[in-house]
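CORE FACILITY INTAKE
Project code: CF-77B
Contact: R.S. (postdoc)
Sample description: multi-component assembly, two entities in total
Requested service: structural model of the whole complex
Turnaround: standard
Below are the sequence entries exactly as provided by the requester. Do not edit them.
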Amino acid sequence: MIHKNWWKYLGVVILLYVLTVGMLVPLKPGISDIDPSSVRTGETVTFKVWGYNSKFAQAQQPTRAWLKLDDERALSAERVVVKSDTMLEVEFRIPPYLPVSQKVQDFSLILDNDVDGPSVLPSAVFITQDSVDAARGEQVWVNNPVQDLSNVSGMTFPFRNILGETIRNTYFHVALWLAMFTIFIAGVFQSVQYLRLRTPSRDHWAVSYTTIGVLLGILGVVTGAIWAKNTWGAFWSWDVKQNTTAIALLIYLAFFVLRASFEDPEQKARVSAVYNIFAFAALVPLIYVIPRLTDSLHPGAGGNITFGSQDLDNTMRMVFYPAVIGWTLIGVWMATLLYRVKRIQEKLWDVY
Amino acid sequence: MKLVKEIVWLLHKDGLLEWRSGYALGGILLYVLSTVYILYASFEKIEPSLWNALFWIVILFASVNAITKSFVQESGARQLYYYSLLSPISLILAKIIYNVGLLLVLSLLSWGAFTLFAENAVTDNGLFFLAIFLATLGFSITFTFISAISAKANNNSTLMAILCFPLIIPIIMTLINLSKMALDLKIKANIENDLYTLLGIDALLLGMTLVLYPFLWRD
């Protein structure tokens, strides 16, 4: 039993691992907000800074803070007052001139202590200059570059500002999507085999895989919509990726309508195999080419780089890759169950 | 060489049938002209963005109507005759070429009718013609193949619509982008990107059609 079905157990074990680790591992401490976020030059400002998952009060050494201009130049804080684990008051003395020739310059806030490790809020503060003079800015600039950052070990997922805890959806939305594609490819392969060999079992396999692919696709869209609600603000915002996905699902629903309109089993199997291959070919430009040419909110479209290339760190990889394999294995398992139901129906009731 | 001969023979046959009955072309002309007239009567002055949408809606539905007939008109007996005479590749290629011609005539006539009744909203005529050509290519490949599929099932026109519209969306999305540029609704940028995408989709679908039709044509 375990010899023959080892991959099913593997799939279940992997998914349990993904669910526990993916849900329980905490996010890395980060900065959730800063107030005020816009100041003028020549002021001494006390910023209120809110941390996420942070332990400011438990740090052994005082928390350090910088406003970073670029890789070489940063201002360091005059004073850091810890109010609670998740709140700080940071005082910066903004020089009267900035060493840049723009009127408004954005600065990233960097915090560092020995418990939380370094955390960054990109473009946290916008400083407006009263008058632009880069040369005088260079003279009055007191440079305190960001250095000696503490190294904190421990298993955490990265903190991204808009994403927050929803970063865990990577293991569901993205993994389900990749599993769906694997299953669809398996379905197309079975359709090709049907056209070559003309054995009814190949048709059963093709339909089973395609059905499960559609199921995974619907789950992918639903998880994507939930993610969109939390990051873009609406479940469905008529984004090009959402539209093309809806159309892709329509193409596959048409597959089932097509099958329903045939009486003769051989003709049904043959025509639907032909359509399945054709539809898959039409799906590739729809999913992978069109969104790249259009503006989109979704990563991996309209010149956006994909999520994975930038934000997937090694801890996430340790969950994400197993998640893809796990969902695929469970998908294949469900497809084999469907296949067996079809075989039994054929044997018992002569229903094709 | 045999392929070319067969295709020319089939094109001649389809052209002759059309010439004698005038059924497809006449019906579609009537459809296009009456649609354009209704548009003119209700809008009088058509904005370029509306012009763009209406033009492609007219073309899309006229194309579906025109191409649905391509396999239905072949009777069972004639199909048997084809099996013994022709290769499937030449049959589908002839149908596609014939439909490209038909759709090209149809779209240019619609463009003419739009110009006559409303006005020509197109500012870059060359680009718009190119868009029309690539569109007719993609429409006729997809619709011809789908009409071959739906001819196998008996409930034709409904199935045709269900199968066609989702499959044609990638072509339409790229096309609308191109024609927006031709109508000055959008800044011209990366035209060749859209052209290559459209050409690539057309080539992909043509390749799939040629590979798959031999499995489909014969019961």
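Facility notes:
- Residues 2-216 of chain B form one domain.
- Chain B touches chain A at residues 142, 145, 149, 152-155, 159, 162-163, 165-167, 169-170, 173-174, 177, 190, 193-194, 197, 200-201, 204-205, 208-209, 212, 215-216, 219 (CB under 8 Å).
Invoice: internal transfer
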